[in-house]
User: Fold this.
Amino acid sequence: MSLDKATVARIAHLARIRTDDAQLDALVGDLNNILGFVEQLNEVNTDNVDPLASVTGHGLPMRKDEVTDGAYPDRVLANAPDRAHGYYAVPKVVE
Assistant:
């Protein structure tokens, strides 16, 4: 299947896309390339392939939904530029 210039102009009109002749020629080429690729996909034999609901086929790992302190404050504060009493220390910004 390929599209001619008149068909692409009609599609552009229906989609309310303003095109000039130079753009129309490029659109004809682009759309025909896309249709050619779709026709290539139709040639792939998928008779013995189950349909996919997910590309991974795996569920997400789940953990308990609970709030904890992480139990490792030293590791959390290891990269803090300044700390005080086990917390990040930041400069006062409001008087």
In short: The mean pLDDT is 88. Residues 3 and 31 are 7 Å apart (CA to CA). The beta strands are 83-84, 87-88.
